[in-house]
Design brief:
Length: 279
């Protein structure tokens, strides 16, 4: 992708392809597959050294939990109202679930069943304990069901199970090709009218590679190029408000496999029967 960026050491790249070549080697190199596996291993290894707490999974910014959940809830409610309805049982998948923060504070308030995917074992065990019936956070009609300790790049959701697949603060761990292949595989997990929700840090332009935790912060344009490659359409999007200024901006996208219909009652910017201007 012809998009310039830099890494956390300040090294500049003319394109994301150049950056990926630095990380993994040239396409077809004998060591490319090994280098990519090592990249993922180091990424998980970074998080294995992080405390299984809200402050830990939020990088020392535990106080952003409340505005994060509030903005996500407003966004989710509009999706449920417009596409899913409330007259049937709903199921969600929480990808990169960490300690179950989003499942506990948001998803279980709107979905009857939630499954969690997380490659860091001590995070997932903390989620399992926090979301157990003994801790009073679940009920017979709203519960966490399955806990998958699998890396996202290797995970395939159960076919036709989910109304929403929620992907927050984890897709930056995936290389572009695995980003695309994950969403292509994950489409089978959606029910009719199902939606992916992607919530992520946004670079002002291009990308920023974090050399320590092996993650890439992509720009809005970068994401849109990848969505195209995935065959996904932006149903709606929203900027997160209320976070500290020193953090990356955060954006939330609702993505669908079908082309969003034009809202009933809206008009085209071009008047009927009016010729286009010659430029």
């Amino acid at each position: 992708m012809e998009m310039c960026g830099l890494d956390s050491d300040g090294k500049e790249f003319k394109s994301s392809d150049e950056m990926w070549r630095q990380e993994f080697g040239e396409q077809g190199d004998d060591d490319q597959h090994k280098n990519k596996n090592e990249w993922y291993r180091k990424g998980v290894g970074y998080w294995e050294g992080v405390e299984a707490s809200v402050d830990g999974v939020l990088g020392g910014y535990g106080h952003v939990n409340e505005p994060d959940i509030k903005a996500s809830e407003d966004f989710l409610k509009s999706i449920i109202s417009e596409r899913l309805g409330t007259n049937r049982k709903l199921a969600a998948l929480d990808c990169g679930s960490g300690i179950g923060r989003v499942t506990k504070n948001l998803l279980l308030r709107y979905f009857n069943e939630v499954d969690l995917e997380e490659p860091v074992s001590h995070f997932l065990e903390a989620a399992r304990e926090s979301l157990s019936p003994e801790n009073g956070t679940v009920s017979d009609d709203r519960k966490a069901v399955n806990f998958y300790c699998v890396p996202l790049q290797e995970f395939t959701p159960e076919a036709g199970r989910y109304d929403v697949i929620w992907v927050q603060w984890c897709i930056g761990q995936l290389a572009d090709d695995d980003f695309v292949s994950f969403f292509k595989r994950a489409k089978v997990g959606l029910k009719p009218n199902g939606v992916f929700v992607l919530k992520e840090n946004i670079a002002k332009s291009g990308f920023v590679l974090d050399k320590e935790d092996k993650s890439v912060t992509r720009s809005d344009l970068y994401f849109k190029e990848l969505f195209k490659r995935c065959g996904l359409h932006i149903y709606k999007s929203k900027d997160q408000k209320g976070f500290p200024a020193e953090l990356f901006p955060v954006k939330i996208y609702a993505l669908t496999t079908d082309m969003p219909k034009r809202v009933h009652g809206t008009r085209s910017k071009t008047r009927p029967n009016q010729p286009g201007l010659i430029k």
